[in-house]
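Fold sample X.
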Amino acid sequence: MASSKILFQQLVGEIAAHRIDPSDAAKDLYSQLTPDERLWLLDGDIGLLQFIVQFIREGYCFRPAVAGSIPRLGIPGIRFSDGPRGVQLQGKGTAFPTTSTRAQTWNPDLEEQVGVAIGKELRALGGNYYAGVCVNLAPNPKWGRAQESYGEDPLLIGTLGSALVRGVRTHAIACVKHFALNSMENKRFEVDVECDPATMHECFLPHFRQCLVEGGAESLMSAYNSVNGEYAGDNAALLGILRETWGKEDVVVTSDWLWGTRDSAKSVKAGLDVEMPLRSNRAWQLPKLLRQEQVEWRDIERIGQRILRMELAYYARMVEAPQAPADAPGCKEHRDLAKHVAAEGMVLLKNDDVLPIRPTGQRILVVGPLATSTQTGDNGSSFVPDSTVVSPLEGLRSQSGITIAYLDGYDLGRVEREAQRADIVFALVGYTGADEGEYIANLDPIGMAASLPYLAPYPVIARAICWTAQSVLGLVRLVKGEIGGGDRKTLRLRRADEQLLRAIVTVAGTKTIVAIESSGPVILPALVRKGAAAIMMTGYGGCQYGNALREVLFGDAEPAGRLAYSIVKSEDDIAEIDMNATSVVYNRFWGYRLIQLKGERAAYPFGFGLGYGDFTLEDLQTSSSLNERFFEVRVCIANRGLHQSSTVVQVYAGKASPLASECTRVLVGFARSSRLPPGQFTSVSVRCRLDPLARWESKSDQFCVTRGWYKIAASRYEGDADAIVKVIPVQQVRWTVKTSDRFA
C-alpha cells in the first residue's frame, strides 16, 4: 500500500496539466485507501464532545469544520465554513448584507463580486468549502430564515444564487442549500412537507438546478425536514431527482448539520455523501451495516470516489486561480463592496421630494433604538462576527454640514416635541434577531435522540445526551446575547414601533423619513403609509450599513433596490401555512402568484422600487413568435427624473387567456440598466426564458410549454399598469433536464 503524503497533490498536478481526468484520479486515489479510511471520508472528523468544547471556547465556525481529512495521503478533506453573509472563520471575515438584502439589488454581476470576495476570504482563512448559497423559497414570508435567501420568485432566486456560486468558485467549493422545501424554522426538525411532483419541479427545485447548471456548484446540502414522508437526507426519491432525473452524479451531497442524518443505511443508499459535522451515526453504524450486508462496499466506493473527485478537481482549479492573500479577510476593498451592495439593496417605496437630503445646515432628528445597533441580521449560523460594523447613527454623524440629534424613542412626548423642532425626522424601526432568524431552541431532545440509533437500546441516555447538548448550546448563545429567532409571528412591526411612527407622523409627517430593517415584507399602519414623506426598506445592511445609509440619504448613492417579495395589504393575502405545523402541503400559489389568483393588489408589488430617477418604458422589441426555450427582449427606457439613476427592466409573461387556476403572468427575465443621466434614453437587452411557463411531465421527465398566444410584458414591477405588452404566438417547446442547457 502506497504511503505518500504527497499523492493527493501529485494527482492535482496531473489534473491541472490535463494528463488525467478527475474521475480517474479519484479512482486511483481511492484504491490507496484502507477500509477504515474509506469510511472516514463519509463523515466529520471530530466527535460531539470535542465539538461542544470548541463551541464553548470559540463560538460557531471559528475554525473550518473538517470532514474526510487523511494526512497519510495528503487528502485535506472538506474544510467547511457556513454563510451566507460572509465567512465566520477566526472572526476576521467581512459581514456583507444579508442575502435577502442583496436580492433587492436584482444585480447578478454585483452578487458575483460578493461571491468572489467571500471565496477569497474563505480560502485565505484555510477553508475550501462554502455552505452559504441558500436558495430556499418560502411560500410564507414569515419564515424565520428568509434573510438567508433571495425572495419569493424562483427565477430571481436561481439567477442570483448562480451568480454567487460563480463568484465563490473562483476560490472555493460552492455548496447550495437546503435541498429541499426547507422554509419553516420553528418545526424544521419535525415538519413533513408534502408536494406533488409537478409543483416541486416547476416551483421549488428549478433554482437549485440553475445553481448547478449555470453556476457550476459542486455540492448540495440536504435539509432537516421531511419531504413526502421521508427525511430529506435519507430520501431516495428526492436525491434521485439530482442523480437520475438531472443526471448530476458527480455532485456531492452533505447533510444538514447536527443530526441531519437520521438513518445511515438509507442515507448511503439514497446518495447522501457526507454526514456533517461530526463522527456520529455513520461512524457507529456503517461497520456493522457492512457486516450485515445492509450496506454494500460498492455504495461506499461510489460515495468516496465522488468526494475525492470534487476535492481533486477543486485543488486542480486552484493551480491557475488568482491568489487569496492573507490580508484579504475584512480588507477595505471588501468593506467598500459591502457598502455598495447595502446602498443598491435599499428599496425606496415612497418619496415626496424629501430625498435626497441637502446637507445645508439642517437639523436632523434620528429616532429609534436600532439607530445605535450594530446588528447585521440574526444570530444563527449565518452570523459573521465583524468588529468593524458601522451603526446608522455613527454613519449619519460622519456627514458634514448638518446637525444630528438622537432619541431612542421610548419617551413619545419628548419625541413629539423634538420632531416639531427638527428640519428632518429620520425614524429607524424594524426587527432584530429576537424577532426572526435561526431558532436554536427547536433542537427537540426526543426527536434528536431518534437520530442516534446506536443508542436505541438506551433511550433515556440518548435523550439525556441530546438534552444536554441543546442546553449547553442554548446557554452559550444566551451568554453571548444570541437568543431568539424563529419564524415571525406577524408581518406587522412591534407595537412600540407602530406607536412611535404614529406619534412622529402625526406631528411631523411631511418631513419624516421611515427606514425599516427586515428580511421581508412589513405591513405598515395606513397612517404611516399615507403620512410619511419617505419610506425605505433597508434590509440588514452588513458592516458598512451606517455609511451606506448616509450616502443614500444625502444623494452620494442611490437606493436602487427593487422588492424581492410582495408587501401585501393584509396577512389574509399570504399563503395559509401554519408555521408550527408538523405536516404541511406546498402548492404553486404564494406571493404575487397568490395575489393574482385572489384578484387582489399588493400594497407594494414584487419588483417595486423608486430610486432617485423616474423611468418610463418607451418600446419593446422581441421575436414575432417563439419556438425556442431562450429568447431576447429589447426595451427602450428613458429617465424623466432629475437625478442620474438606474432601473431594473422586468419581463413577465403568461397565456393571453389564462384559466382561472393559472397565474396571469410570471417573471421570465430581468436586467439592471446602467446609470442614466436625466433626460437620456437607452436600450436594455433582457435575456428571457420560457422555464417559468413550462409544465412538468413526469412520464417523460420533460418540461413542456404548450402552444398558444402569450402576453410578453416589459414592466417596472409586477402588475405595472404602464407595462408595454405584446401578444405573440409560442410554439410547443419541450426539453429534458438532462440536456446541456447553460443559459448564455
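Fold sample Y, listed below.
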Amino acid sequence: MPRTAAFPALSSPVTRVADSDRRRTSASVIMRSVLEHGPVARSTIARLTGLSPASVTDHCARLTGLGLIREAEAPRRSNGVGRPHVPVDLDDSRLVVGGVHVAVPYTTVSLLDLRGRVVARRELRHRSLEPSEVLARAADGLGALLEEAAGCRALGVGVAVGGWVDRDSGTVVEHPLLGWRDVAVRETVGARTGLPVQVDGHARALVNAERLFGRARGSLSVLHLFVGNMVDAAFATHDEVHHGPRSQAGAIAHLPLPGGTEPCDCGRVGCLQVELSERTLCGRARRAGVIDGVNPMRVVAAADAGDPVAARLLRERARMVGRATALLLDVLNPERVVVTEVGVLYREDCLAALRDEVGAGRAAAVSPSSFPGTVLAMAGGAVALDVLYRDPLASSSGPGA
C-alpha cells in the first residue's frame, strides 16, 4: 500500500500574529523591568518576568540597538572571583518624546526623557481658540524645544486634551470650553511635525503617568481625578486604562454633586464640573475681593500669604472634591486614588479636607499628583511614553534613523 504523502507545512497567519504579540509583550515587560529596577542584570530580569535567559538576552540586544537601553557599569566583586553580571539600564541620554497639553487658557509643550522626567517645557498663551492655529503653534513650539535640546531625538509626540477624546482616531470629538468638535489632532500635528502622534484625554494620560512613573506604580487599580477648568476621571486596572466605546469613559462633568448650588448649562444645578471648575473657584475669589483675573494659582498664593478667605475657598473646594472622590470610590473601589487639583497639590489643609470627606477608612488610599509643578507638561508626554512602553520594538528603527 502506498504511503500517504504528508501535507506540506503551512505558515499560519494566526501563528505569525501570536509570535508578533509575544515579542511585543516580552519587550514591553523587559522595558518596564529596566524602568523599575535598573540598573539590573539580565538574569534578574529573567527571574522577575518569567522569560527565559535566552529571550531576555535577545530582547535586550534589540532594545539596545534601538537606543532604548544600554549596558551600565558592572559592579565590582568584593572578592574578585567570578565574572560580574553586566547590568542594563535605560539609555536616557538622547531619546525624548514630545508632549502637548491643550488647556483652556494656554498650551503646554514639553520634552520628556524615557524616565518621564521633563527635560524642557514652554507655555503658549492662546491668541485664539481656532484649532488649526492652536495646534500649529504647539507643533512649532515643540520644534523650537528640539532645536534647543542639542543631541536629542524625538521618538514621537503625545497630545493630551480635556473633554471627549477618541484615542483610536486621534480626534477631539468635543471640548465645550474650547469650542472644538471633531478636530483631527493626530493628523494635524503629525503633518506639521513629521513625527508619529498619539492623542488621548488628559485624565487617562495622567493615570498612565502615575502607573509608569508615579506613586501608583505597582498598584493593581488606580483612579485619577482631574479637576481644572475641565473635570474628568480615568480608571486603570491590571495595567490597562478603561476607554470604553469611542473613548467616552471618564466623562463625569455632569454627575450631581451633593450640596452643589451652581447652575449648569445642561439645565440642572450642582453638576460636578460647574461646581469644581477653576472658573468657578476664581469667580468666587473675585467676588470676595481675593484676586483679579482667572488664574487659580493666585488664590493659592493669597492663601499662602495669610488671606483667610482664600484659604477658606480652597478648603471648601477640596471638601467638594472629596465628596466626588468618595462617590467614585464607592462605584469603582480602586486600590489607589490620585487627585490633580491646585489646592490639594500645594496645601496640606486642602489635602486633609479632601481626606476627611473620603473617610478615615479610605483616606490613606488618596494622594495628590506625583508631578506638582509639571503635571501638564507630563500629561502630553505620558501619552507617547505609554505607547513606547507597551510596544518598544515599534518605537524606531534605531538611533539617528
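Sample Y note: The first strand starts at residue 69 and ends at 71.
Also: The longest helix spans residues 13-37.
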